[in-house]
Amino acid sequence: MKKIILASLIAMSTQFAFAESKPVTADPAFTEVEAMVKANNMTGAYQALEKLGKAGNPQALYNLGYLTQVGQGTTKDEKKAIQLYEQSASKGYPVADYVLGKNYLAGSLGLKQDTSKAKQYFEKASAKGFSDATVDLAVLLFSENNPASDKLALQKLDPLIKKGNFQAIHAKALYDISTGFKNKDEAPIKQGLASIQTLAQKGYIPALMAVGNMFTNGNIVPQNLPEAKKIFSALAQENVPQAQESLAVVEKMMAEPAKASTTAPTKATKKS
């Protein structure tokens, strides 16, 4: 489960990415920086990355952006972090494109929310083969609510689905369920649910969260609060975001009927 949790976080702005996507010999300079990070020498890591960044290394510029964003090894400066991400993206580093897209979509790091710019950055990262960006681009296209965008989104997801990409399968499953409800068609709903259940059985965190929410709400499948509690408890132990909050909601829902049953007035028996 821990491996899947880490996989789902790759390239997010909250991750410090050093690994190259290709199985080649690691750059000795990055090996040195990684060793500094493991030793919690963030100042040394920042200084080493700064040298690489000045030489135009796009991955170093991205990592400098992250450290500047969170204030590790240097003063926290979100505006400067964006500038570093932009420099990295301009040199062709897809993770930087992706992070910029995420922040424009959310309107975070001091950026004004701009769906159009987010889409452009996702498209750039996707064109460079970054699958996370392709999935987010497809989700953004789905949100446009028109047949042409839906068709394009499905085309984007299809190659990833054929490769067994969990994120793409999950995005398609949610689309199927949504479309089924919209068109009052049970077939895509069942198809989407089957995909999500399969992903959940494989330990994919977003699918597990989705199943837990379904059991909690009882809108798509019959409500099953004990099962929802089991799922959210396991995820909370892994420190999965929102799992603890969801667990608290389920426990409150389970406590309310029990409390009601203990406080309900008993009917008076008739005297003969």
Which short descriptors sum up this protein?
single chain, 272 residues, mainly alpha, Serine Threonine Protein Phosphatase 5, Tetratricopeptide repeat, 14 helices, 0% strand, globular, disordered N terminus
Structure report:
- With 272 residues, the protein is an all-alpha fold.
- It has a domain at 1-21 and 36-100: Alpha Horseshoe (Serine Threonine Protein Phosphatase 5, Tetratricopeptide repeat), CATH 1.25.40.
- Helices cover 71% and strands 0% of the residues.
- The protein contains 14 helices and no strands.
- α8 (131-142) packs antiparallel against α9.
Write the layout of secondary structure elements.
Blueprint: H1 2-9, H2 28-38, H3 42-54, H4 58-70, H5 78-90, H6 94-106, H7 115-127, H8 131-142, H9 147-162, H10 166-183, H11 186-201, H12 205-217, H13 225-237, H14 243-263
Question: Percent of residues in beta strands?
Answer: under 5%
Number of strands: 0
CATH class of the domain at 1-21 and 36-100: Mainly Alpha
Global outline: globular
User: Biggest β-sheet, characterized?
Assistant: none
Structural class: mainly alpha
Spatial extent as radius of gyration: 23 Å
SSE string: HHHHHHHHHHHHHH
- Which blocks of ≥5 consecutive residues have pLDDT under 50? 1-25
Within the CATH hierarchy, at the fold level, what is the topology of the domain at 1-21 and 36-100?
Serine Threonine Protein Phosphatase 5, Tetratricopeptide repeat
The second-level CATH architecture of the domain at 1-21 and 36-100 is Alpha Horseshoe
Helix content, binned percent:
over 70%
Gap between N and C termini: 64 Å
Q: What's the CATH H-level homologous superfamily of the domain at 1-21 and 36-100?
A: Tetratricopeptide repeat domain
